[in-house]
Design brief:
Structural class: mainly alpha
Strand content: under 5%
Helix content: over 70%
Number of strands: 0
Distance between the termini: 50 Å
Largest sheet: none
């Protein structure tokens, strides 16, 4: 049984999609369909959400980030690049699983929401489809990033320390390229998270239209995902998509080396 759960093929094509479908089914199936008196448009639903948030408003506290020394950042970056190359197959495998799960979640959320009558106009459909398209675009970016690292480079990283690998085995172009790959991969992950949170936010907004025992839960979900929705978030998603492509495709390395 354990061997079956660890099988990479089953993880990629069975378990990960099933997790996305299951989570979406749970999230979109918790509340009833909207009634005739429920708001139909996104704007009216957002007004209800704001009203509910004002009632349940809680105080928040801000945090401060401590500054880091430049040398420490350089060493950390070198270590991150080395670890990325050494474990690239494992890293890309689990990122692919996560992306598949998130994509199945958004697709299932759209399907169940439409079946239950939550998608009351084209604007709701657009709000849910945009994150799904953004998640789909993460896959070619991930493939592009994997293709930039050859097996010879993996062998070099495996048989050397992170200082030796970065300073002795990589040229100036190679250093910039590998740093670009790590930053680009982080941007892909952030892009996927923002897109998934955006879809989840609109699912939570839909469920604000119907009073029920889960209303507090949906209000909490809408609150924590609020920053991932809206025009600003969509612009940020497009920017991350463009920057991630320039990084993983090697264009930044070509321009700076």
């Amino acid at each position: 049984m354990i061997e079956i759960l660890k099988d990479p093929t089953l993880q990629s094509f069975v378990f990960s999609p099933l997790m996305g479908v299951a989570f979406a089914a749970i999230f979109t199936g918790l509340t009833a369909a909207p009634t005739d008196n429920s708001p139909k448009s996104v704007v009216l639903t957002q007004r209800i959400y704001v009203e509910h948030r004002e009632v349940h408003r809680k105080s928040t506290s801000s945090t401060k980030e401590d500054g880091r020394e430049v040398l420490g950042m350089v060493a950390l970056l070198m270590l991150a690049v080395w670890q990325y190359v050494v474990n690239i197959n494992l890293i890309h495998h689990y990122i692919s699983l996560g992306l598949t799960c998130c994509l199945c979640f958004t697709f299932t959320a759209i399907l169940i929401s439409a079946i239950k009558g939550h998608v009351t106009d084209s604007e709701w459909f657009y709000k849910l489809v945009f994150p799904s398209i953004a998640l789909m675009m993460c896959f070619p970016l991930l493939i592009k990033a994997r293709g930039a690292v050859s097996q010879d480079l993996i062998n070099l990283a495996t048989n050397s320390t992170f200082i030796e690998f970065f300073s002795d085995h990589l040229t100036r172009y190679g250093q910039v390229l590998m740093i670009s790959q790590v930053i680009g991969l982080c941007m892909i992950i952030v892009l996927a998270l923002i897109s998934t949170f955006a879809a989840l936010h609109y699912v939570a907004l839909m469920n604000q239209r119907v009073l029920g025992r889960f209303q507090g839960f949906w209000l909490w979900v809408a609150n924590i995902t609020d920053k991932s929705a809206g025009n600003g978030a969509r612009i940020l998603i497009l920017m991350f998509m463009a920057f991630a492509y320039l990084l993983v495709a090697g264009h930044v390395a070509n321009w700076t080396s």
